[in-house]
Every structure is written in structure tokens, then in C-alpha cells.
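Lecture 7 notes: from sequence to structure.
We start with the chain below.
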Amino acid sequence: MSKLALLQQMLEITTTMADRARHGVWDDVVTLEKQEAALAKQLEHYASTAATAKQEAALIHQILAKHDDVRSYVDPWREQVEPLLRALAPQQG
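Predicted C-alpha cells for the same chain:
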């Protein structure tokens, strides 16, 4: 597999992640995030070439945009859930 192919897979995953976040399917978002992280870890084993560098950069920008999209759904949800989780957590003392 090439670096370009890994980035294309990561874009597919982040696109699906954004869709699942939009619909509030948080378990899927977590699963997809783990899959993407595993692919991202593999990137360190590949070097860019002059022939693919522009395409790779474009894919990275698209991936980052999808991450922003995911955050636009996750952050408001997290703001609603965090007070509930704090209230349920055992009191530290």
C-alpha cells in the first residue's frame, strides 16, 4: 500500500465519521476514529514522493476539514453530556 492509498482510506473513514457524527451515532464515530488512528500510525513508514506530494497534501486538507466537521457535532454534544457525567461520577475527596 502507498502513502497516497492510506490517505485516501483515511479520507473515506473521516467522511463516514462526519456522517455518523451528524446523525449522533457516537459508537460508530469512536470505532471509525480508532480505524483512522491505526492508518495514521502506518503513515510514518512511507515517504512522500515528488509525484504524489500535491495529491497527498490535498487529501490531508480534506481529512482535516472532515475532522472539523466531526468536531462541530461532537463539541456541542460533549458540552451537554459532561455535566451529567460529572454529576454521576463518585465524589473525589
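Points to note: Helices lie at 3-22, 26-42, 53-88. The chain is about 80% helix and 0% strand.
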